[in-house]
Write a structure and sequence with these properties.
- The protein has 142 residues and is α+β, with helices and mostly antiparallel strands.
- It has a single domain, classed as Roll (Pnp Oxidase, Chain A).
- The chain is built from three helices and seven strands, in the order H-E-E-E-E-E-E-H-H-E.
- Strand 3 and strand 4 form a beta hairpin.
- The longest helix has 14 residues.
- The radius of gyration is 15 Å and the shape is globular.
Length: 142
């Protein structure tokens, strides 16, 4: 997508702060091609874990099956980690629930309603999970 070039540039520049609260770059090598990819994605970070979601029809996440080394550009800094895409329905439901609970304002992107306490509607989560995958990145410590 043409706009990914602009977003990648912004996230790698001194003006990254305009986007980097919720958007990061994930870089990895293609499983078959060995080509280096850098994809801008929305994310949630908590306790050394970064959560990302993608539509199943997109193909980039397939490179992360079985866990692979990745580099993340988060808030102007690079981090190393192991990224793994997970397609299990049970996992994706839990993944989306955690994602939305950590950043409730993202519920609208998944068409998930929140109750008066800010908890996501589980039926909405299950529906949203049908066409998504979860990507879990374990950050490396030094």
């Amino acid at each position: 997508m043409w706009y990914n070039l602009i977003i990648r540039w912004m996230l790698s520049s001194p003006i990254h702060g305009l986007l980097s609260e919720n958007v990061m770059l994930i870089s990895f090598k293609g499983r078959n091609s060995g080509k280096e990819y850098a994809i801008p994605v929305n994310y949630v970070q908590s306790d050394g874990i970064v959560l990302v979601t993608s539509y199943r029809h997109r193909t980039w996440w397939r490179n992360l099956r079985e866990g692979v080394p990745v580099t993340l550009r988060i808030r102007g800094q690079n981090f190393k980690g192991i990224g793994e895409s997970i397609t299990s329905k049970t996992y994706v439901i839990k993944h989306l629930q955690d994602y939305v609970q950590k950043v409730p304002k993202h519920a609208k992107y998944f068409n998930v309603a929140l109750d008066s306490d800010g908890n996501p509607n589980l039926e909405d989560i299950a529906r949203a999970a049908q066409d998504r995958v979860g990507i879990r990145i374990q950050l490396k410590t030094s």
